[in-house]
Amino acid sequence: STARFSAIKDMAESGLITKNDALSIIRPDDLKQLMLPQLQAENPPEPFCTGLSAGNGSVLGRVCLSSEAVFKAKNHPVLFCKELLPKDFKTYLHCDAVITCKGSNSSHAALIARQLMRTAVINCQDLVIDKQKKIVKCNDVVLKEKDIITVTGDGKVIKGKQSIGIPLGFN
Question: Which of 9, 7, 36 minimizes the C-alpha distance to 166?
Answer without folding.
Answer: 36
